[in-house]
Design a protein that fits this description.
97 residues; alpha+beta; two-stranded antiparallel ribbon; 3 helices
Length: 97
């Protein structure tokens, strides 16, 4: 037996994922086709000044953010639903993208 969250439980019972116990007692999770799901890599270390580290990361990539960065350019026009679906969900676009 293994304690699984709701999402994992559903994946195992309804979506074909499998859980196996290795000889050392560790659990192995397999995709429906049998491929081993890779383990989650460890999180990177958090520096003493994470804000400065993030700024340096962005600056090294030529990214610039200011108070207006997240302001929308929307002027109140109606949403073009077909365009939104094409952009957000490529499988909904019969032309393939």
């Amino acid at each position: 037996m293994a304690l699984l969250c709701r999402r994992q439980h559903r994946a195992v019972h309804e979506e074909g994922y499998r859980v196996e116990r290795a000889p050392d007692g560790a659990l192995r999770f397999l995709r429906p086709a049998g491929q081993l799901l890779p383990e989650v890599p460890p999180l990177p270390a958090i520096t003493a000044d994470p804000v400065q580290a993030l700024r340096a990361h962005h600056q090294a990539r030529g990214l610039s953010f200011d108070a207006r960065t997240t302001c929308p350019g929307w002027l109140g026009e109606r949403l073009d639903v077909a365009w939104a679906l094409d952009v957000l969900h490529p499988l909904a676009n019969p032309r393939g993208g």
